[in-house]
Amino acid sequence: MANDNEGVLPSSLDGDQRSGSGVASPMEAHGSYRGSDWSPERLAFHQNLESFAERVGLIVGLQSNGKLSQEGAYAEIRKLWKSLRSSKDNLLSGDGSPGETANR
Would you list the domain boundaries of the chain? Predict the structure, then answer.
C-alpha cells in the first residue's frame, strides 16, 4: 500500500515535546528506576529505554491503522534502535554490564 507520508512520523514523535502541553517532557521519567546499581548514567539510559518503548508502540499503532507502511515502520524502529544502542554505548560503556556488545 503506497502512502505519501511513508517513513514520516507525526510531530508528536519528533522529540519536540514540551511540558505543560499534556505531553511529558523527554527529561521526565515515565517510571522510577529502582536498580540497586543506580547512577546518573543508568537513569539517563533507563529514560531513553522507556522513550524507545513508547515510540515503538506509537509506530506500531500507526502501522496497524494504515498510516505507515510496514517498511516505513521497520525503518523508523531501526533508526530508534540505533539511537538507543548509541545511547547505551555512550552512557554505559565500560561499566561491566553483561552483554555489552551483544545484538549488534
Answer: 39-90
